[in-house]
Amino acid sequence: MAAKTRQKPDAPDASDRVSRIREGVTAAILEHRLLPGTKLGEDEIGEIYGASRTLVRTALQQLAHEGIVNIEKNRGAFVARPTPADAREVFEARRLIEPTIVDHAIDAVSPTWLDRLGQHLAEEREAELRGDARASVRLSGEFHRLVAEMSGHSIYLGFLKELIARSSLIILLYRRHDTPACGTDHHAGIVTAIRKRDREVARAQMLSHLNEIEAELFLKDPAADELRLADVLGA
Amino acid sequence: MAAKTRQKPDAPDASDRVSRIREGVTAAILEHRLLPGTKLGEDEIGEIYGASRTLVRTALQQLAHEGIVNIEKNRGAFVARPTPADAREVFEARRLIEPTIVDHAIDAVSPTWLDRLGQHLAEEREAELRGDARASVRLSGEFHRLVAEMSGHSIYLGFLKELIARSSLIILLYRRHDTPACGTDHHAGIVTAIRKRDREVARAQMLSHLNEIEAELFLKDPAADELRLADVLGA
DNA sequence: CGGGCGAAGATTGTATAAAGTTTCGCCTGT
DNA sequence: ACAGGCGAAACTTTATACAATCTTCGCCCG
Questions:
Q1: Read out DSSP for A36-96?
Q2: Cys-Cys crosslink for A202: which of A139, A193, A216, B209, Cβ 3.0 to 4.6 Å?
Q3: Residue A224 · residue A85 · CB < 8 Å
C-alpha cells in the first residue's frame, strides 16, 4: 500500500530547514530586531543556521513574496522599507478583510477556540505588564492571525499573514509615540464580542481597532528619502 | 551618492529567464493546456526553456506560492487541483475585494485607461467571435487584472492575481456546461459604469458578474476523491 | 584638493555534481 | 498463482564550484 510511510499531508509549518530559516528571519523582523534596510547576506544567514546558500536563497525568496524583504538584482536581499503609500494600502486592505474574518470566526466558536483566544489574551497582558516590547509586538500580530485561523478560510489567512508582517514593519517605521503595543484592551473587546456571537459588534470593534492603529501612525507623503537618510545617520 | 546607478525600481515583469519560465507555465495553466494534476518535471521544463533546473525550481516555487502549483516533498510539482471548498473561498474573496477595486478604479478614470479598457473589450469580443476558447479564458481573467491595475493598489493587485489564477483552474474543473467564457457583456457593462463614474452601479455589476460565474459551477461537497479517481481513469 | 578612472575584493546568479528518497519492476518463497 | 520484499532507476533535494556583476578603495589626472 501507498499509505505505509505516510506522514501528515502537509505539516503546519514544515519542520524542514528552509522553514526554520524563514521563520527565524521573520521573527527577527517582526520583533524589530532587524531594521528596515538591513542587508541580509546569503553567506551571513547561511552560517547562522548552518545551511547552504541554496536553502537561504529559497527562504529569502519566500520572504520577498510575502513583502517583508526586497530582493534587488545582483545586490542582495534587504529588509523591506514600506513607503507611506504602502502603509495606507496595507491598512485599507486590513479594514476590508478583517471584519469579514471576524464574522466567519464567529461561525467557528467553540470551547476550544475560546480557550485559545483567552490564553492568548493572557499572554499579551503578561508581556505588556513586564514591558517586553518585542513580545508585545509579536503577540499583537499573532492575535489577528489566530482569529484568521479560527475563521477557517485559508485564502484570507494567507492574505492576512502577509498584511500582518508588513504592518509590523510599518508600525516600526511610522508610529508617532512610543506606544508599546496597540490596545490589548481592544483585543479583549473583540474576543468578548466573538464569545457573545455578536457579529455586528465584532466587526465594528475590529474596524475601529484597525483605525486606531493607523491613527497612531504619521504617514507624511514625501517621507521616503528623509527617513532613509535619518535612519542611516542614526545607525 | 546612493542614487547614482539607479535603474527602474522594479521591472514590470522582469525580463529575466525565471520570469519567462513562470509566465510560460502560467499561461499554459491558465489557458487550460496543462490540466490539474499534471506532473511538472524539472528536467522536462528545463529542456523546453533551455534553462537549468535551478531556474525552473525557482519559477515553480513562485507558482506554488501563487497557489496554482502544488509541490509535494520529494515527489515534485503538480498543477494544483482546487477542491470545492477552495473554490468557494476563492469566490468569496473575489466578491469581497473586487467591488472595492472597481470603486478605486473609478478614481483613476482617464482617457488612457478608458482606451485600454475599450481595446481589451474588443480583443475579448474578437476571441469569442472566432471561438478561440483558450484566448477567451485568458482574456477574461486579464480583464479583472486590468481593472485592478487601474485601481493603483498594488496589494489588491497582488491578491487578485492569485485569485484569478486559481479561478481559472476552478472554472476548468467545475463548470457545468461548456460555456465558453463568462459574459463578455458583463465586462462591457462594468466598463460603461466605470466610464460614467457610477460607483454603485459598477460595484453591483462586478458583484453580480462574480455571482453568475460561481453559479455556473457545480461545487458538490465530497467531490475531491471521486474527481481524482475519475480523472486518473480518464487519462 | 576634488573628481573620475580602474583594479581588487566581495557578493550574487547560474550550472553542475553528489546525496537522499520515492517508485516501480522483478524475483523469490510459500 | 500470489503476496511480500529486494533492488535498480528516476527524480527531487542539497551542496559545491564557476561565472557575472557590483562595490570599494586606491591612484592618477586636472
A1: TT-EE-HHHHHHHHT--HHHHHHHHHHHHHHTSEEEETTTEEEE----HHHHHHHHHHHHH
A2: A193
A3: no
pLDDT band at residue B234, thresholds of 50, 70 and 90? very low
CA B34 – CA B66 distance, rounded (Å): 16
Of A14, A96, A163, the CB nearest to B97: A96
Q: Which three cell numbers stand for residue B161?
A: 492575481
Strand pairing report for B69-72 and B39-40:
unpaired
pTM: 0.89
Domain boundaries of chain B, sorted by first residue: 17-79, 84-215
| CA dist., res. B16 & res. A105, Å (int) | 42
Q: How would you class A76 by CB atoms within 10 Å of its CB: exposed for 0-12, middle for 13-18, buried for 19 or more?
A: middle
Domain B17-79 and domain B84-215, same fold? Reply is no
- Indicate the residue of B61, B96, B156 with minimum beta-carbon distance to A61: B61
What are the residues facing B99 on neighbouring strands?
none
Contact present, B135 and B33 (Cβ < 8 Å): no
Question: What are A195's three cell numbers?
Answer: 464569545
Q: What is the ipTM of this complex?
A: 0.88
Task: Note whether A35 and A172 are within 8 A (CB).
Answer: yes
B17-79 placed in CATH 3.90.400.10: no
CA–C1' gap, B210 and C10, in angstroms: 53
Q: How near does any CA of chain B get to the CA of A231, in Å?
A: 14
